[in-house]
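Write out the 3D structure for:
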Amino acid sequence: MIRSLWSSASGMKSQQLNMDTISNNLANVNTNGFKKSRVSFQDLMYQTIRQAGTPNNQGSEIPTGIEVGHGVRPSATQKLFGQGSLQSTENPLDLAITGNGFFQVLLPDGTSGYTRDGSFSLDSNGQIVTADGYLLQPEITIPANATDIMINDEGVVAFLEPGADQPQEAGQIELTTFANPAGLKSMGQNLFQPTAASGQPMFGMPNQDGYGGISQRFLEGSNVQVVEEMVDMIAAQRAYEINSKSIQASDEMLQQANTLRR
């Protein structure tokens, strides 16, 4: 009877983590480049009361044994890097990646961060930066007198100066991929950093060798599907409720056993 209490409690704790993950997905439904997470579960160890294949009194083998599980635990929270929907904007420095890849930015501590959020701006020096002021890598500078900025799907950045007929090239945007993007560490601020599980960053040009293309004047939205998350939330809530019912039923059975009299 005590096993059922602990098994149900583990189910409630696991569904709480599931609900936390779903809530975070829904909270970021309008976050640029956000990738939703999914919780995976695994059953805990089993207590074998009777081993399958044990000989019985007649000399034949018992076909099935008796095993009792001890509940469930979360095994992973996995980022799903499916493509988010593209939203058209009027900002020439709004960039969306269509396909695989991340933008690389320079963090204040000198390390690199990686993001799918392409809402860039220019700082006081004309350099392309994120909303938090992190420099896009490799660095690209646009002159202050530029009248237009053009970025093609291969990441070539050009600008037009007053009176000029032909645009001048300012630089090349590179993209970064990883062998296992799900192994990246989420840093907040729409940033990721590599881990031993993700593998080392690999750099390449947009629209080449499997890297995604660049869409200017577009932003990639979150890949969260509200309807799917709401259905998952209902399922998590019902699973939490049924586990609490199991605890209640086990408690009532223990109460009945404690009130037995000779």
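The two ends are 21 Å apart (CA to CA).
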